[in-house]
Amino acid sequence: MIEATLCFALRVDATGESVDDNQRTEREVLLIEKRRGLGEGWYNGPGGKLEAGETPRECAIRETREEVGLEIDPADLEKAAELTFTLDSEIHTFCHVYRTESFAGEARPSEEARPEWVPVEDVPYDRMWEDDRLWLPGVLEGRTVVGEFAFEGGEPLDEADFVEHDLEWDVTLEEGADDG
Ligand SMILES: Nc1nc2c([nH]c(=O)n2[C@H]2C[C@H](O)[C@@H](COP(=O)(O)OP(=O)(O)OP(=O)(O)O)O2)c(=O)[nH]1
User: Fold this and answer.
1) ipTM, two decimals
2) Where would I find the Nudix hydrolase domain in this sequence (predicted)?
């Protein structure tokens, strides 16, 4: 089983667009266009596989730094979801999902990722993993979720068929003892 992470950074953008002379503010999420590996060409949050000895929280922070150059304090990461992806009835990947509204630095591209701030209302679900439209909107609203997503058709996971899912919302997500 692969253990992996995703990290969704959120900010409020004052667009300055006037609606009846009121300044409109818009929440934005930092997505990446993945340049290689699993999910290449699709949008996702920064993230990736845990390295040996690393906690999920440390992994989410490292991957966000490596892929887009933002620095996040561990205390500012909020656990938002735990997602299990099965492939042909076996657990393929367990993914820890975090969100944060506090970070330092400006997003910059890397070999793995092209970052893009996207209005939360305009997330390009048609260019993402098929299951994301089921859980990411709630996560971006601040909810928590535990989900299981079944894929069939053999490796690689991103070419398999998404066949069924189960979601439990607004759960308390326990942090592991080493994932403080
Ligand atoms: N949003 C979303 N992300 C997913 C799904 N399934 C899935 O594995 N992921 C994530 C978990 C990981 O963050 C990422 C895959 O890990 P990765 O980016 O390290 O994979 P890779 O093959 O590119 O590995 P590497 O070469 O960088 O080592 O994709 C899904 O259905 N939706």
Assistant:
1) 0.95
2) 10-141
